[in-house]
Amino acid sequence: MLKAIQILGCSSGFISQRLKKSHSGNGFSLISSKGSDTSTSLFLHPFWTPKTLTFRLIRMFSTQSESNSNAPASSSSFSSVAVHSAGNVHKIKFCQWCGGPAKHEIPDGEEKIRAICTLCGKIAYQNPKMVVGCLIEHEKKILLCKRNIEPSYGLWTLPAGYLEIGESAAEGAVRETWEEAGAEVEVVSPFAQLDIPLIGQTYIIFLAKLKKPHFSPGPESSECCLFELDNIPFDSLAFSSIFVTLNLYIEDVKSGKIKFHYGTINKRLGTGPSDIRAFTLDYHLQA
Amino acid sequence: MLKAIQILGCSSGFISQRLKKSHSGNGFSLISSKGSDTSTSLFLHPFWTPKTLTFRLIRMFSTQSESNSNAPASSSSFSSVAVHSAGNVHKIKFCQWCGGPAKHEIPDGEEKIRAICTLCGKIAYQNPKMVVGCLIEHEKKILLCKRNIEPSYGLWTLPAGYLEIGESAAEGAVRETWEEAGAEVEVVSPFAQLDIPLIGQTYIIFLAKLKKPHFSPGPESSECCLFELDNIPFDSLAFSSIFVTLNLYIEDVKSGKIKFHYGTINKRLGTGPSDIRAFTLDYHLQA
């Protein structure tokens, strides 16, 4: 399934020449705030108080707009849209267990409309899905994959995909890295949990290191490449979650302390899938 | 929906008298290991190297056995079994979108058997679900809820439940805390992610504090009570995830440093739901 393994560097040519450092990608203005005007551009700045865990509300904005109605969707590779997206209870017309027609009502003791089977009475709950991936550090560089599939074909991402039943998040992140980047990695530490409520996804990103100095694009990637932090293609990233993760990582590296980050990426309704900077990063917590 | 609010203390009587400190609950032997014999009882001990994020494999055992075939299952309150458990692709007989009969095959480009609609071709992916909850600290005590529903009726747990579409994990944890403990809380920091692959669940636990010094059991709880760390009812806890979370927290408090924990709870197959100590804690990572 995988193309020939190459020894480090880029797994296909002409990448570093094409990509320039995106100053705008890192260029937030600096405001650390609680409850500030959310229409202001704010800097994604890590807080850290060693002896007391802190709570900060940070909103990170940019000038573009975005929507993830065509969000990554398949179980492990973002390839089938709608089935896995945020969930619309009214799209569930039948019971998947008995085939009975579904009704859409609020069950006793609950508060939300659910799809309830009119024959067997089972409820088809819809819940957010976890996308697990690795931020692979190697010689002060980061491994990125260029997407060979929609959505965000041709744009750069971390190796990541939907967590499967029966595996842990760390195992899923390692599997996805092998499938998308042909890289054997060891998970080093949890780095970020980024919820995206609008599309019913939670990104779980681990820091990882290469077990062997090899990588090669899998079927879902056209290229894999190690990028110096100054050369990360911020203008050509695939998803808001990757944009946030890489910014958090760069800030941590600059501060000399890698932390764990929790945050909520609230996308702006009605904006396009390509507008990966149209969001606020809310409830940014660190440990 | 909620019973009358009470000012702190226990929300029903006779709790502190009934519960004794469970020495066995904290009583692991101490071995910090990588790849050690997994049949050995090992201590759940937090590692922390401030300047280098570390990877440790810890296995935590006890003498009992457990199974979660009757795992917590409903969307937000663990009340309906099977619909939400780890997922069995062969239970999916029909397409929930068009009602067509499902076949069970490995789709092109994938590696796992999926339920595929024979009419519209859509794939019904099954993915792990997030259970979000709060570990509420108040005056060196922890708020626990006594379950008023199955599974684990009458046993103690942290307020937690399934994350809903459209909310962040932090929002879900706050909501569940209100629903189950009648407590308004503010999330302080991420504390733990504990995957349970066997039952397709991931626990996301936040440290939180009371916004008002009030709590009261919701419909799914019979009692809510603040416990001193020395009096946590380890012999009467509802779930392995809660057992692990509380142990990690106590160790962190003792060490003087609260960390973020990632780990995998691997349950022993074929054991009973009440055997919450029949597991290993693998891939315990900290940040």
From TrEMBL, chains A, B:
Keywords, in A-Z order: Hydrolase, Magnesium
Residues forming coiled coils: none
Stated family: Belongs to the Nudix hydrolase family.
Keyword Hydrolase found: yes
Domain Nudix hydrolase per the UniProt entry, residue ranges: 127-250
GO molecular function terms noted in the UniProt entry: hydrolase activity
PROSITE patterns: NUDIX, NUDIX_BOX
Name of the protein: Nudix hydrolase 23, chloroplastic
Cofactor: Mg(2+)
InterPro entries reported in the protein's UniProt record: Nudix_hydrolase (IPR020476), NUDIX_hydrolase-like_dom_sf (IPR015797), NUDIX_hydrolase_CS (IPR020084), NUDIX_hydrolase_dom (IPR000086), Nudix_N (IPR029401)
Taxonomic path: Eukaryota, Viridiplantae, Streptophyta, Embryophyta, Tracheophyta
Encoding gene (name): LOC110415062
